[in-house]
Structure formats: structure tokens, C-alpha cells
Design goal:
The complex is a heterodimer of chains A (222) and B (225). By secondary structure, chain A is mostly helical. Chain A has helices spanning 3-23, 26-45, 52-74, 78-82, 85-90, 96-126, 133-156, 163-191, 197-217. Chain A has one domain (3-220). Helix content of chain A is 81%, strand content 0%. In chain A, helix 3 (52-74) runs parallel beside helix 7 (133-156) and helix 3 (52-74) packs antiparallel against helix 8. Chain B has 225 residues and is an alpha/beta fold. Chain B has helices spanning 44-51, 74-79, 95-105, 111-121, 137-149, 167-179, 197-203, and strands spanning 4-15, 18-29, 33-37, 59-64, 67-68, 80-83, 155-159, 189-193, 206-211, 214-218. The radius of gyration of chain B is 17 Å and the shape is globular. Classes of the chains: A mainly alpha (222), B alpha/beta (225).
Amino acid sequence: MTFPTQIEIGIKLFEANLKQAWRDKTNWVTAGMFAITALLLYSFAFNLTGGLVRNLLPGVIWTVFLFSGIFATAQSFQQDRQHGILDALKISPIHPMTIYIAKTLTNILMLLLIEFALLLGATILFSEPLFVPQLLLIVTIGTIGYTALSTLLSAINLDRDNGGLLLPVLALPLLVPLLIASVEATSASLQQEASTAPWILLLSLFTIWSAAIATLMFPLAD
Amino acid sequence: MQDLAIETNRLTRRYNGLPALNRVSIQITSGSRIALLGNNGSGKTTLLTILSTLLQPSEGSATILGYDVAKKSTALRNVIGFIRHQPMLYENFSPVEDLELFAKIYRVSDARERITRLLTNVGIWHLRDEAIGTLSRGQKQRLMIAKALLHKPKVLLLDEPEIGLDQNGLRMLDELILMREKEDSTPITVLAATHREDRVATWATGFVRLERGQIIETTLSENTE
């Protein structure tokens, strides 16, 4: 099957994944509720006023994003496996990489919707302009990076009974460099003093690395 | 000599060192309808799962229409249809949505027309817009039959296709798959695992009986290479 054909099929599969995610909202509602609750708790736990908020927000934002993302992506392929859809796709002429890319893009889109909504909420809660283009860019790049890796790890964990538990254990050490770059880039963006360019560049490199490795590894995941 | 549709050579699969399938060698000619018989745990599902490309053999080889199963090529996947114990369906899609997606994946040219015909033939056209999750086991099995036939496969691998089907469903199964596919005169090679030995004589041209992963009785010529 040719490359353009795979792209065409990948788009159809992406649409199907979105439809499936929209109709069965379990993972996404859980992730969204966790993120809202965590953000509210942080806003009450810390008295985030004045300059202090800018020091703490990068950590707060990325902790919330990371754990809600892991909640959502941990079950990425679980439902497909339970209903036999993954096997139906595996015996079809579709390339495994196409299956992975379509699922990862679905996860990225759904997570970005949650994250952008949270940034809007945090803007109100912390009285800080967080819904700004530079921060949205950092969040988008960081989300692509960690979702690429956590989607792969969720596929690796499929046949393990404690797969959901194993995902954070496997994912978090691998994601440390990417998270550091995300937090630093966010911090630099909020402080408006330091240049964000080096951190965004580093974040982009980690994202490209994790997306490329995960795409190449997925066909071997079974 | 007739063309071979399925050939296995000392096909072996072990789980934790124990063989589920042990040096199985068979040759099935094109157009044959072979019943795969045996008790639970005899290796029927393992054999079909290897042939479907979902499972790698531990040893030995298998080819379908000349394509090596282990290479999992696109060409091979275009010629096989597979029905297994569990349905392989999007539970929150309708039958039409599920079939439309797979018609795109298999590049079925006359998709809409073919989906209409298949859903009508399997008797669930009236359920075309219902969520698959709300269908009964038998209705899902009918949908699986339609899905397996969607891309006009040349080889059908069936793992207990009778599951959940009522008498009408069994007649439909015989007509569509086991005897012939109604709208297509091209002969299909069928390898079907079944516990319904009482029905085998009505559709099978031969059989293979497995026990503990080995062939103990067959009407096929065994591959002795």
C-alpha cells in the first residue's frame, strides 16, 4: 500500500478515533475532572498572589497536565483491545505506524482541548494572562512530546494485568527531560525576562525525538 | 496438482515452553472447505490465529496463496477474512459506520452498494443505524460475517462462526460462507474451526482433527517436506 494511501486511511482512522472518543467520554471526562480538581486545590492550597504565582505556575500547570494526560492515555488502546478492534486493524492492510499515529493525534487533540480550557480557567483563578500565543505554543509542543511516548507505553502495557499502574512507572523517568524543558520554557515565558528560545528549542528537540522513537517502536510493541 | 491456498510446514507455537501447536503440516487446495475439529485446547484457535497473522509461530512456516504468513504483507492481508470467537467491532459505532471505515481501509470500490447488500444478506439491514453495543451476540456475529466478506477475501479463516447464531443464522452462514458466497462466483477457500460436528457433512469437503496441538486424523494430504 502506497504512502499517500496510508495517509488517506490514517485520516479516516483518526476521524473514527475522534468519533469513538466523543461517544465514549470516560477517559476524557476523568482526565478533565482530575485537572479541574487539581487546579482548584492548588489555587486554595497556595496563596498565589503577586509575583509568587509566576514562580509556582509552571510547576502547577505541568503537574496537572502530566497526570491528567497519563490518566487519559493509559487506556488509549484498552478499549480497542477489549472489543477486538485492534486485532481487526492488525489483520487489515493498514500499517502499524498509521494505527499509532492516528491514535496519538487523537490523544493530542483531546488533551489540548482540556489543557487550553484549563489555561483559560487558570487565567481567571490566578489573574495571570496564561492564554497567550507563546504559552499555547509551549503547551502544544510539550503535549505532543509526552503524548507520543505515553501512547506508545500504553500499547506496550496492553497485555499486562497491571498495565495502567505500570504506565506512570515507565513513562515518568523517560519524560523527565521533556518535563524539565517544558517547565523551564513556561517559566521563562511567564517571567518575560529570560529568553524562551533556548528552552523552546530544547523542548522541540525532545518532542521530535520522542515522537520519532515512539512511531518507529510501535510496530515492535506487540 | 491443484493450486494450494493454505500450506503449513511443521508449524509450531509454544506458550511458556509448552506446545499449543506441534509440527502441524497441512496442504489445502484452492476452493476447499475444511473443517478444523478438536476439543478445547487442541490448537485450533492457535492455528487460525497464526494464519490470520496475529500470532507469530515459534517454529515452522505457513503460506496463504503463496504469501508467507510471518511477513504479514499487505497483499496477504487483502486476501484473508477472519472471524474469531470474540467480535471485532466498534461498540459505539453503527454497523454501517463500522463497515464504511473498513471498506476505506480495504479500498473497497463499490463500498456503499456492497455494505447494503452484505447487511441485507446477513439479515441486519434494519439494524444498520443502531449502536453495535446494543446488538445481541447473534446479531454481532452476523455483522462479523458481513465484515469478513466485505473485501471479497479469497481465504476465510473462521473460528467457531456458529457462535450465537439461531437456525436462520446457521442457514445464512451456510449460504454465504460455507457453501458459497452468493454474489460472487469466485470460489473461497474456507478453514473453519467448529464444535458442531453434526453440521460438518453439510458444507465441508474435508477435515483436520487436532489433539494436543497435533494432527490425529485428516482427509488432507499432509505436507511431508
